[in-house]
Specification:
Blueprint lengths: L14 E4 L8 E4 L14 E7 L4 E7 L9 H12 L16 E10 L6 E6 L2 E6 L2 E8 L1 H18 L25 H8 L2 H10 L3 E3 L7 H7 L19 H8 L20 H4 L4 H12 L1 E2 L1 H7 L6 H11 E4 L2 E4 L1 H4 L13 H15 L4 E2 L1 H8 L3 H11 E4 L3 E4 L5 H6 L1 H22 L21 H33 L36 E2 L2 E2 L18 H14 L1 E3 H14 L12 H10 L2 E4 L16 E4 L7 H11 L7 H12 L5 H11 E4 L2 E4 L6
Parallel strand pairs: 1-7, 2-8
Antiparallel strand pairs: 3-4, 3-9, 4-5, 5-8, 6-7, 10-12, 11-12, 13-15, 14-15, 16-17, 18-20, 19-20, 21-22
Length: about 700
């Protein structure tokens, strides 16, 4: 220095050597979820493998199953879920318990040119450049295998294809297609797609390695390569850089390192990135990916405080209203220059076919795939794509619309609903010309009309009363004759103190009425040894569908306030026990038919829940008639009604589905205690799924 004083004296000089023996083979492993004091040095390593080009490593390490911290029952359960009960060589866990775990690597950084491993020995610093820096994290691929096993078991239980009513003909038509030449633009899209990248990564074979412990002799031998092997005069160690160049090498200028985006689909945005887009682009991106969404869910995904009126303007540009829910428009999914990835059909034809499916869902809840294919005449793969975008398959019921009807939106925005209705009328006119059909072609025949799949209890009661009035005149004479016959049959006297034999009359039942089980103690002769009350006779004008029996209604009301959900057979069983507990001579409850009992249930603030039982279900007709308490005067009734609505389309659901639906309906005010109470009152758990009480044998 010019002043002659050295404020930064040199304390020691260390020679630095560049070791190249492991320059292309040295990796640094990091374990970010493990404290540095808990190393894996003493853990048994079972296997190791690597994909060098991708720098992907997998390690299998043994678990100490004898440790007091190891839960043996949980380990056995995991092994059972993954491998089942079979004894095969390909099983993940050969010991029938989770006795190992797998670690999979991800790259901490792609540029390792500024990183090296250093070893200090005898005043010499030896540096070896790193080939890669990998973070090892536990892999949960065994959960994927367990989930796959579960789906296979479910598929086996469901028994065949979801649309069994659309059985394929024995003679199948073969469609021959010739692939058109791939354009450069299409090729670029294909090689940038997530599927293509995943396929390329899977093509690189694994290279299996041998693991050697820290104190192994082979490890000690390899560590010697961390030292520079040739330090003789032949090695050029002279510094040929100027001071400024050397300083720039030691402290390079700060450059913004490009963020490495994770491998994923090109159309995926994070919520933070999404909210930086204009509102119209946000709505279009969400609808293009989700395809079917209620308006409330859409508002929840946008930035809090977004004006709902502005969102309504945007959503109508990219989606159409179907059953109160928004479905993305066909021309948004299939732009003019695109074509079908399956068949090469141009976008214009695809849009017409998909518009037909959407239009049909504005009128019905379920569609048959064959019906759709016979009209739009597109390849089966395209038809299935249309249906999968907006519906789910149901056994023996075709394809059902994905979401329940959002009546709340229609009530809140009648102007939007009316505008959408007019748009659908215009689309219907175009479709009728293109596909040469009329709306009347889809109306059910008069002689084959059936009741709707979802009918409330009040509607069923009203229909039963109308049928009874229509048939009253023609059946009057026959009823009078049967009353006279019944009166003559009951003139006999019963000996005192003796139990009277049960006499069951076979009487004509009204439409849909089912006879009660003769073992249920609901008799047409006498109850507890006394004649039945005349006003309870179903053929004297006060039976099913007419004036209720007060004591029967009191019993039903108290029963459902205690149990909340019951099937018809269980109601009959409990009523049977109630009759048996009555004192001798009690005659308020007389002859009761199924229809009388069902009408009393529906009058008692209850409704029938049309649970879609699976085809292979062994439940009887009475067990499949499920009723639930709809109104009890409490605020919790609304929670119960939402639960019943969920079970109108699913016979079993997961807890998180119920929690999400309740949160959508009532906001964050729904607590865990509310969900627990609801499930405890109305459901039973079996195999991790929740069922309505009475629909399964718990």
């Amino acid at each position: 220095m010019a002043s002659g004083e050295d404020d930064d004296p040199i304390i020691q000089e260390i020679d630095v050597y560049l070791a190249k023996g492991l320059a292309e083979k040295l990796y640094l492993f990091q374990y970010p979820i493990r404290p540095f004091t808990m190393t894996y040095d003493d853990v048994t390593h079972l296997s190791a493998k690597i994909k060098p080009k991708q720098q992907k490593v997998e390690l299998e390490m043994a678990l100490d199953t004898m440790s007091p911290n190891y839960c043996r029952s949980k380990g056995e359960q995991i092994a059972l879920n993954v491998d089942g009960t079979s004894m095969e060589d390909s099983n993940t866990y050969s010991m029938k318990m989770m006795d190992k775990q797998t670690f999979s690597s991800i790259q901490a950084t792609t540029d390792t040119s500024r990183y090296a491993a250093a070893v200090l020995r005898k005043g010499e610093l030896h540096l070896t450049p790193l080939q890669g820096i990998l973070q090892m994290r536990p892999s949960f691929s065994y959960l994927d295998k367990a989930d796959s096993k579960h789906r296979e078991r479910e598929a086996a239980n469901e028994g065949g294809d979801s649309s069994q009513d659309e059985a394929e003909d024995e003679v199948k038509q073969i469609t021959v297609r010739f692939s058109r030449p791939e354009s450069e633009q299409a090729r670029q899209r294909r090689i940038q797609s997530y599927e293509f990248l995943q396929k390329k990564q899977a093509e690189e074979p694994w290279v299996h390695l041998h693991y050697h412990g820290l104190k192994d002799s082979r490890s000690e031998h390899e560590r010697q390569y961390l030292y520079c092997q040739s330090m003789g005069p032949s090695e050029n160690t002279e510094l040929v850089k100027t001071r400024s160049e050397y300083l720039a090498m030691l402290m390079p200028p700060v450059a913004e390192e490009k963020a490495v985006k994770p491998v994923g689909p090109s159309n995926v945005l994070s919520m933070a990135q999404l909210r930086t887009l204009p509102l119209g682009d946000q709505v279009k991106t969400l609808m293009k990916n989700v395809k079917v969404m209620p308006f409330a869910n859409l508002m929840g995904l946008l930035t809090p405080g977004t004006d709902s009126t502005a969102v309504l303007r945007c959503i109508q540009q990219v989606a159409m209203l179907v059953q109160g829910n928004w479905v993305v428009k066909s021309d948004v999914l299939y732009p003019k220059t695109s074509c079908s990835p399956h068949s090469g059909v141009p976008a214009e034809v695809l849009c017409r076919g998909r518009d037909f499916v959407m239009w049909r869902f504005t009128h019905v809840r379920s569609l048959m795939r064959k019906e759709v294919a016979s009209i739009i005449k597109l390849p089966p793969e395209d038809v299935k794509d249309f249906l999968e975008q907006m519906s789910v398959p149901r056994a023996n019921r075709g394809w059902e619309f994905l979401l329940p009807t959002d009546n709340d939106f229609v009530k809140k925005h009648p102007d939007v609903a009316q505008r959408q209705k007019m748009l659908w009328l215009g689309i219907q006119t175009k479709l009728e010309k293109v596909f040469n059909f009329s709306k009347e072609d889809f109306l059910p025949k008069k002689d084959a009309q059936m009741e709707p799949a979802h009918v409330s209890g009040e509607q069923r009661l009203k229909m039963a009363r109308e049928r009874a009035r229509e048939n009253h005149g023609s059946l009057q004479k026959d009823l009078d004759a049967r009353r006279a016959q019944a009166g003559s049959a009951n003139t006999g006297k019963k000996p005192d103190g003796a139990s009277q034999a049960v006499c069951v009359k076979e009487e004509p039942l009204s439409d849909g009425e089912e006879p009660m089980d003769t073992s249920s103690a609901l008799f047409n002769g006498s109850v507890n040894g006394y004649p039945t009350s005349p006003y309870t006779d179903p053929h004297n004008g006060h039976g099913a569908g007419h004036a209720p029996v007060p004591e029967l209604q009191d019993f039903v009301q108290s029963l459902f306030r205690k149990h909340f959900v019951l099937c018809l057979s269980e109601v009959k069983r409990l009523f049977n026990l109630h009759l048996a507990s009555l004192p001798a001579g009690h005659c308020e409850l007389g002859s009761v038919t199924d229809r009388m009992l069902q009408d009393t249930i529906l009058r008692s603030n209850c409704r029938q829940i049309f649970v879609p039982f699976p085809p292979q279900s062994t439940a009887s007709a009475e067990e499949q008639k499920v009723f639930g308490l709809w109104e009890s005067g409490e605020t919790f009734d609304k929670h119960r009604q939402v639960l019943f609505d969920i079970f109108n389309t699913n016979y079993r659901v997961r807890r998180n589905v119920i929690q999400t639906r309740l949160t959508q309906e009532f906001g964050d005010s729904v607590t865990k205690a509310d969900v627990d109470k609801l499930l405890k009152e109305c459901c039973v758990s079996l195999g991790g799924m929740w069922y309505l009480r009475g629909t399964v044998q718990s």
